[in-house]
């Protein structure tokens, strides 16, 4: 009892790795969004100096959206598959 079989171990390991990558991306996104200003009032001279930095941050934040969603979906699928396999193993082993 307590011993994890091969396929279940691989599913749990892959779920753990995907979830760690997802958490790392979420932390990176949070640090980027903390540097972003909600409203930025600049005159024409400041736009060239500071406006481009905010545009770069917004581009990075937008670019992170798809990988975060993909990793979240993959993490959920792997967790569901692991739970299903665990239940199936539990019912088939007396």
Explain this structure to me?
By secondary structure, the protein is mostly helical. It has one domain (6-92). Helices cover 84% and strands 0% of the residues. The protein has two helices and no strands. Helix 1 packs antiparallel against helix 2. The longest helix has 49 residues, at 44-92. The radius of gyration is 21 Å and the shape is rod-shaped. The model has no long low-confidence stretch (mean pLDDT 83).
List keywords for this structure.
84% helix; rod-shaped; mainly alpha; 94 residues; 2 helices
Summarize the structure.
With 94 residues, the chain is mainly alpha-helical. The chain has one domain (6-92). Helix content is 84%, strand content 0%.
Structural class: mainly alpha
The number of distinct structural domains comes to 1
Give the overall shape, derived from the CA principal axes: rod-shaped
Strand segment count: 0
Major sheet characteristics? none
The H/E string reads HH
Helix content: over 70%
Strand content: under 5%
Distance between the termini: 11 Å
Uncertain residue segments:
none
Please write out the topology.
Layout: H1 6-35, H2 44-92
Helix pairs in contact: 1-2
